[in-house]
């Protein structure tokens, strides 16, 4: 049994962490902290937790609360974790950061895409990129986990087998992504009002979305080459879920069989489901679960392959993967607390 | 560890039973049966279950499959369970019927509201109305459970304390109910198409909805008088959830304190949450969970009380309550398999 | 051809006024004013109007801009119109106020329900309540129109025939109302975010919603008695539309024929459609149009009548009715600019 | 004043035709025909039209009804118009076919993508592809209009300027498209039920959607070369609207200025709006209107251009463009009946 603390607990990511941790048999939620709601009952902010959690939000001076906990999740905006983390914290607790602060190894890339100065670049090297299916061994002993972004998790897992096997021309890679609105967070902005999102769809961050370099870096490791790609996210009128549709030219002579074999890399992965031929990923088939569904289709007319992936942005794209990382770090069953079947309805 | 079978497994109620039973630690799903999809993979019908359930639908001649199971759930249309059930079945397995066949004690009332002849009225008397919070003791030893309807569960639990305490004038009772679209089932009807439901709302079954006599009967037991009420359901553009708003005149001289005391009847009930004063039930606060949230507000201007309840129609209103009944019947922890916190997003 | 000005043009009500006025053949939009977006292009705030309106928002010192216009619409929050209006304005232009400032004749009632001091009670008496179907003659020569609230318009029109004909017991009247989210306005509040409204439903303003006294007053005139009723609004996950379901006991001996005759009061009203027996109002059948669909059902078991009405809150409930009032005031065809058929999809 | 008939009037396309034609000042709807609903009141099928249209559906033997009408719209499934159309019909009335039957000049291409034998290939050559902005002159005197598909209209108009100006490498063209659910039609299929579409998104017709060759043919004319491209549509939980996001490599040395100049081809087009730099098309900004909003963004990192377009699939993508074609054919103002501003809410 371990004790956990959650910084930034009142955002949507924090809310989802609480939901999963409440039923995790090896975990006790020791404290939840917040910048905005200090001293308020957590179950007054999310009334779904009424009778389930009996705690007030504490402030964000978390160094005062480290002795009680084994691991701290940061479900905070960009920059917060980088500002807070230090040797003292890392010597006392494990840190799992759901923000982007430690995902990108090149600090200049981080600073130019995110438009902020990195407050603790000295920890970037140590941080382990917590895409469990790719970095499981390194995660085990990490002190600081950079929990992957939602779009990157879905994009990378969908494309990784072909990038690694060298079957696609990485220079032709285009990712067209679609996300539910919880990805935009809980900030009170006109653009995220019900009536502004409902019955519509739009692209955003065209050619400059911050998740681009994260995807490029990881697919660069996989393909062993520098990768530049186009990534275009779209806002969808639904609460949860991400679907990515990716396009690349197959290298000359690549066969369906080779592609199929490449995806066998996931044969032992519980949370990545390579669909049967003819099926396509649908968000509802993974909703509220930690699964990523991937599939592909080769177009012989253009010699391109269309790669598709569906995932719940709040689960495998945030809280679920964070808990999966925690499970690996503490030697729990990797699936503990994450066994919910998708809520197709 | 018990084995269960599910008749009518491919409707939305069956789908939700599977979702919960897959994570129930004392249960193994032995078979799923279907009229329409015999011999098809269950995970081809609901692809959310890909890799999670590896069974084909069997036919509905369930007498051939009784030896393998301890309990059979009927998630079937009205009339099916009444037609199938018999002494042989009841001697071998427990039966939990999610349809209305055994909910109403007066067979004439059933036949006139449902417009069908009851095929096995001889079992009506034995059947226990499975509203766990009211009939827990009788459920323990029942062979045949009539799992309550979705609207009745939410309506009855919201009104029951005041009916039982005799604080409201039962002749003034009006229930205005709102349900998500999964309540309309999975039949391929034009009226349930996305574009026909979305961005709209309408009443249906006005003054003649079949759940009316079920609510009247149970509130009649509680208030020890004959009850006639108005019940008007509405179709809401959302997948899950029911909200009821009920109105009644307070009897003369009834105080806020008396009302508050009456609702303390739920103090030991885990799944019924009486909200703090000033809060109102919201569907999102119970979504995907087995909770019912209830609240009330007295209007001194009209001397009426407004009673409100929110519930997930597929969980406490169907599959969840069925499993709660099963847990009680087999001596499991009543909450086993039902501990998920609501998915507020 | 007249010129119009719109104060508070950047809220949802103002946005809808612009949409209808752009195709009104007798109207030119002279100016749009705003508190928040002064000097910004109107089509930058609502990009749907790109190429259709080429005006910047002016400030709210509208006394400077009166010479150019014949009528001014106030689509402003409560209190603003009462503060701004004066004899100078009323001597120069017609005023149509979409807020509640001049709807309620008893200033004490206004002040106690709205919680604000009325800034110009001297104009309350003169103001005409602009429910066109009831007050057409008075509207013709009015200088100041109190455009009815959305819930009141739908509620009153649904109940008015029976109240006026004296067929229902007014003491038993209960209105359960449901509205799309545009009714909550365009303010950037967490509770109106997409993810907070979607897939949920809740009551609000239970027993104290401000539209209550407005409905009571008008139905009081109709029934020639003091009316106290319960009014409970609910927030629905859709953009537009209101549905009301109202309940009352029929007076003794009242027949179906008498009820039917009472609704013939609308026989010559284009915008009020009394549905054929057996049909129920649905929001989608009036969406984006100025129609109100009404219907009723008598329940012989309880001797209650259920009255139902559907309407687009932004059209007949706000901008459409305001234009209908303008048409009447300026002697235009009452339907001019309002002939769009409902957008059922 | 002309008289029109509508074959297939009870599908969503027919429904939208009726909505627009009811307010077209030069048009009278003479008859509506249907296969399924013969002799039923049209306003019983779409109750939104109650009091607005007083006609029963006639059968589909339309040769009996030609004398009354000047133009016949076919809003029918693939193959129906090809089967019905003949010299007699074309000698008496203009025909506007909203299906794909006459869109593709190469009958083999049609037959292989649509999987049906073309019943009247002799009329293919004569048919004019009714994309008004590209073929206005030919439309004027046409007897038979092939009204473009929804995806093709949005895709072609978004890409056409660059294809025509020769600024992009046509071999690199990829179109990722998203559509509201009305595009799936009104057929009673499980996959289109509210609960199956809501809160989800999926691709369909991957690498084999029938609109592919239509887009390829038209962009082939524009670019004067053979075009093969990838087109992937997705189903979005909203009623109306299409968004396309298209990707292509710019030819070497192409400048922002050249791209901007190319889009000036639309300077005189009322219904195509090239957005200001920095803005992106959103479905809500064109909803219920005949506008297509287009925009582009150059990514200097990859030297690709991202082209975007938003449109209402039922208006410019079906009924609106059909009426625009009719207006051109009969010498009416091209915008008559189509001047509604978008319903942003």
In the CATH scheme, what's the topology name of the largest domain in chain A? Dihydrodipicolinate Reductase, domain 2
Number of helical stretches of at least 4 residues of chain A: 11
| Overall number of domains of chain A | 2
Strand order of the largest sheet of chain A: 8-9-7-10-13-12-11
* Terminal Cα span of chain A: 33 Å
Radius of gyration based on Cα positions of chain A: 20 Å
Biggest sheet of chain A, open or closed, and with what strands and sense? Answer: 7 strands, mixed
**Which regions of chain A are unreliable across 5 or more consecutive residues at pLDDT < 50?**
none
Order of helices and strands of chain A: EHEHEHHEHEHEHEHEHEEHEEEH
The proportion of residues in beta strands of chain A is 15-25%
| CATH architecture title of the largest domain in chain A | 2-Layer Sandwich
Query: Mean pLDDT of chain A, nearest integer?
Result: 98
CATH superfamily of the largest domain in chain A: Dihydrodipicolinate Reductase, domain 2
| Largest two-chain interface | A-D, 47 and 46 residues
Oligomer: homotetramer
Structural class of chain A: alpha/beta
- Please tell me what the overall shape of chain A is: globular
In which range does the helix fraction of chain A lie? 25-40%
CATH class of the largest domain in chain A: Alpha Beta
Total beta strand runs of chain A? 13
Care to give the gist of this entry?
The first copy, chain A, has eleven helices and 13 strands. A seven-stranded mixed β-sheet of chain A has the order 8-9-7-10-13-12-11. A six-stranded parallel β-sheet of chain A has the order 2-1-3-4-6-5.
């Amino acid at each position: 049994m371990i004790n956990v603390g959650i910084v930034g607990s009142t955002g949507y990511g924090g809310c989802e962490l609480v939901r999963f941790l409440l039923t995790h048999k090896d975990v006790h939620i020791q404290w939840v902290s917040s910048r905005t709601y200090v001293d308020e009952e957590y179950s007054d902010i999310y009334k779904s937790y009424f009778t389930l959690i009996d705690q007030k939000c504490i402030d964000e001076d978390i160094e005062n609360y480290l002795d009680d906990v084994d691991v701290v999740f940061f479900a905070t905006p960009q920059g917060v974790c980088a500002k807070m983390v230090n040797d003292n914290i890392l010597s006392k607790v494990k840190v799992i950061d759901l923000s982007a602060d430690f995902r990108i190894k090149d600090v200049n890339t981080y600073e130019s895409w995110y438009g902020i100065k990195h407050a603790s670049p000295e920890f970037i090297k140590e941080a382990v990129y917590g895409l469990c299916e790719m970095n499981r061994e390194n995660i085990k002993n990490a002190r600081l986990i950079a929990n992957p972004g939602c779009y990157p998790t879905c994009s990378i897992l969908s494309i990784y087998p072909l990038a690694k096997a060298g079957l696609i021309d990485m220079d032709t890679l285009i990712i067209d992504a679609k996300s539910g609105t919880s990805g935009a967070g809980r900030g009170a902005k006109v653009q995220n009002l019900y009536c502004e999102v409902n019955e519509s769809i739009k692209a955003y961050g065209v050619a400059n979305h911050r998740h681009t370099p994260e995807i490029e870096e990881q697919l660069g490791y996989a393909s062993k080459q520098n990768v530049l790609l186009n990534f275009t996210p779209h806002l969808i009128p639904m609460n949860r879920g991400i679907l990515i549709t990716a396009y690349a030219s197959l290298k000359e002579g690549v066969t369906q069989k080779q592609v199929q074999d490449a995806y066998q890399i996931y044969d032992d992965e519980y949370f990545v489901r390579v669909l049967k031929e003819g099926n396509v990923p649908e968000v509802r088939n993974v909703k509220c679960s930690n699964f990523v569904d991937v599939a592909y289709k080769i177009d012989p007319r253009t010699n391109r392959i269309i790669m598709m992936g569906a995932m719940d942005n709040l689960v495998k794209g945030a809280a679920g993967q964070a808990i999966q990382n925690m499970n690996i770090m503490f030697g729990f069953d990797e699936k503990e607390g994450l066994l919910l079947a998708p809520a197709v309805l």
